[in-house]
Amino acid sequence: xxxxxxxxxxVRKKINKRADFxxxxxxxxxxLVQQNIDGSDFFNRSWAEFKVGFNDSxxxxxxxxxxxxxxxxxxxxxxxxxxxxxxxxxxxxxxYSRFVVYNESQNYELEVSGxxxxxxxxxxxxxxxxxxxxxxxxxxxxxxxxxxNCAVRDGGGFWYxxxxxxxxxARRGNRHIDRTSGTGAxxxxxxxxxxxxxxxxxxxWLKC
Length: 208
Known about the structure:
Elements: E1 4-5, E2 10-13, E3 22-23, E4 31-36, H1 47-52, E5 54-55, E6 61-62, H2 65-74, E7 78-85, E8 91-101, E9 110-116, E10 131-132, H3 150-154, E11 158-159, E12 166-167, E13 188-191, E14 195-207
Antiparallel strand pairs: 1-2, 2-3, 4-6, 4-14, 5-6, 7-8, 7-14, 8-9, 10-11, 12-13, 13-14
């Protein structure tokens, strides 16, 4: 299935093929940021790859941190996270009224707040954190077994603390979970409100 995106400043067609951007003026439409189809190791990518974005024919997709930073700093965006539970394939959602990703010089620092939705707040733990990949360690995690790097442990680049409660780029089945704090690996979402959601798939959208 093809997905068509009509961002505020750009048009992109077909997320399963890299496409050029065209400037246009028009209505504000949702912009796809991330899509993880099945929790494979597709998101175990380098800093350079996350910077420009990537995708595949299955629908796995990352918009690119440079473009994400530009868009979220150009105007007030909301973030919508859609989560499909592995157990019964039910969809849950979380929305954030403020979502900003800062420049590469700031290691794509995450600012996220104003949660609503039926999935709870799985990103509050990571608010204010920097982006980490297996080749660029910006998290405070300490475990020599994994080179003190959450992306090495969890199998995908993301915003980490030690490590994550909302982990949408993790490798499925890679479980190192702290049952008290909810932090750890696997493709999942944890919030104080809902507890664990083991995920089949996920999507992140920018909304106006």
